[in-house]
Amino acid sequence: MRVGLRFTAIFMILLALSSCGGIKGCSTPTAGVSTIPTLGHVVLVVEENRSYGDVIGKTADAPYMNSLAAQYSLATRYFANTHPSIGDYFMLTTGQTVTNDDSFTATVDVDNITRELNRAGKSWKAYAESLPTVGYTGGNVHPYLKRHNPLSYFTDVVNDGHQAAHLVPFSQLSADLAGNSLPNFSFVVPNVDHDAHDGSIAAADSWLQANIGPLIANSQFQRDGLLIIVFDEGKSLDRRNGGGRVPAILVGPSVKRGSSQPRFISTRARCD
Fold first, then answer.
1. What pLDDT, on a 0 to 100 scale, did the predictor assign at position 262?
2. Alpha helices, H only, 18-138
3. Residue 82 region, left (φ>0) first, then alpha (ψ -120 to 50), else beta?
4. What is the pairing mode between strands 225-231 and 73-75?
5. Contact in structure between 203 and 55 (CB atoms under 8 Å)
6. Which residues pair with 126 in a beta bridge?
7. In this structure, what CATH number is given to the domain that contains residue 35?
8. Residues linked to residue 265 through DSSP beta bridges, in sequence order
9. 270 in a domain, yes or no?
10. Would you say residue 147 has pLDDT above 70?
11. Which of 4, 44, 70, 94 is the most exposed place for a label (fewest CB within 10 A)?
12. Of 155, 234, 245, 251, residue with least CA distance to 196
């Protein structure tokens, strides 16, 4: 990342969890500096509108997520930045809120994760459930909501057909896993029936088990992968630190098993 670009949540979590909590094989050669294991495949799955206490500890409603949290690593003090959803999605992918207008339709030209990945020569895809077609950057087509797919707003993507082709229906993930062609970064967008937005926590949990379970078991992911499951914002009345306290679960071969991270984590920190 260039100096001045705000960290995305992915890298904030990695840095916060490295030597002191969630990632195995880390060292701290000097105070405040951690060495993070090389990760070849990072997958971010964003769920919707539930606070930490709605999910963690609720094994009847979310047995799969709780099993992952117990087996791998859990950030116990991770907070969203704002309400409503769209500002949190942009914070995750640009380090800026950009807008709090869920009906926002303009393009976004600020520095963003796709730009930085391309500069670094890293591959990426957004796997969006119910996306109408490959490369679709248009509006809502229920149960797909554009505002849950922030990469579809970026000028880097909208104005470049080659980049737009990295926006694919979720069904492409199974083909990419089978072909050992998982990109370096994957942004996974369940539709509103399966991300706890319109459906239940139980429905979201079942969807994760059925659709993300095969990712975790995949040999390519098991070599050098990291999966982050995070909720965009807490319940509407949960205003703690802006957007409420939300679950953030880390899964992968380099994740320290059975660990939790009690440090405060937000996506507002900067690298400059």
1. 57
2. 52-55, 63-71, 85-94, 113-119
3. beta
4. unpaired
5. no
6. 167, 187
7. 3.40.720.10
8. 78
9. no
10. yes
11. 4
12. 234
